[in-house]
Amino acid sequence: MKLYTKTGDKGKTSIIGGEQRSKASDRVEAYGTIDELNSMIGYIISQMQTYREIKKELEEIQQILFDCGTDLATPTSAKGYRTDQLSTEWLEKKIDKYAEVPPALTEFILPGGCPVASLLHMARTIARRAERGVVRVQETEEININALIFLNRLSDYFYAIARFINFREGRADVSYRRNAHIFHE
Known about the structure:
By secondary structure, the chain is mainly alpha-helical. The protein has one domain (24-73, 82-168): Hypothetical Protein Ta1238, Chain: A, CATH 1.20.1200.10. It is 57% helix and 3% strand. The chain has helices at 26-47, 52-72, 85-99, 115-138, 145-168; strands at 12-14, 20-22. The protein has a two-stranded antiparallel sheet with strand order 1-2. Strand 1 and strand 2 (20-22) form a beta hairpin. Helix 2 (52-72) packs antiparallel against helix 5 and helix 4 (115-138) runs antiparallel to helix 5. The termini are far apart. Pfam families: Cob_adeno_trans. Pathway: Cofactor biosynthesis; adenosylcobalamin biosynthesis; adenosylcobalamin from cob(II)yrinate a,c-diamide: step 2/7.
C-alpha cells in the first residue's frame, strides 16, 4: 500500500464511511487541529527528562485524542463513538491532583516558565483552538459531545500540569499586570 492516495489532490478527503468532504470543512479542520495537538504532546513527551507519571498520562491522552479525532471524522449516520465520559472523569481527577500542589492563584498568570511548562501552555492553547473547532462543527452537525467535553477539560489539565511542573522546578508564576508597559521600571 502506498503512503499517498492522490485523492486529496483536488482539496477533498474521505471521512469515515467514505463520504467526500472539503479539506477546508469545519469537521476536517477540527480533527486536523486535534492531530496537531496530538503531535505537540508527542513533542512535549520527547522533551521531558523526568516526570515519568506525567509522560504516561500524556501518552494516554494521545490515545484518547486519536479517539476524539476518529469521532469527529465519523458522520452522523455512523455509529460507535469512541470517546466516553470516563475519559473526562479520569482527566478531572488528574487536574484536581496537580492543581492542589502549587499555591492557589488570585490573579491571571503569563504562560511560560521552564521549557516543558512553556510547551504545555502551547498545548493548552492548541486544545482551546481544537475545542472551538469542534463547537463550530456542533453548530451545524451532530458530534460526540464527550469529545467536546474532553477537549474542554484537557486545556485545564495542561494548565494544571504546567503550573505543577513550574512549581516543582522552582519557577514562580509571573502575574499578569493590567496596563503593563515595557517602559515601566
